[in-house]
Amino acid sequence: MKPFITERLILRELSVNDAYYFYLLNEDTEVLQYTGDIPFENLEAAKQFLAEYDQYKRYGLGRWAVIRKDDNAFLGWCGLKYSSDKNEYDIGFRFFRHYWNMGYATEAAKKCIEVGFNKFRIPIIIGRVMKNNSSSIRVLEKIGLTRTKDYDFDGHEGYIYLIKRSLKPNQPVQHQ
Asked: Where's the N-acetyltransferase domain (predicted)?
């Protein structure tokens, strides 16, 4: 798939070539603090995860590598994920700590919402967030999601945020 471009970023499919960065990103306990995820056991585990990542093939979208245009730095990832068991699309993002509070998550997530609505015609996108993750809550609110209900986030208090694609009259909704 052709990469998506913003003012400062390139969003492209993740590949096994990103395993080193993917591994390092998940090694940072502060980065993982509000995710419910655990670090990869080793670099090979990160490679295997990326090799088996099937969201692009199955649904045409997924989590995308976020690359800074200026220097091709791998900042983290952001994107949409389809969960067939819940029949829903969620927005997610994860960035290296030294790129926090620079607007990259908001810029990337905004582009993902735009692509989800305009290219993939997704009717509703949700975001799950732990109650104490004020930074991610701010990003979700900046990109237009609204808190709809409380959520048990792996034993932690959390929220579900939601945004709906606005439909023009007589515009059909196409489900993926």
From this structure: 9-166
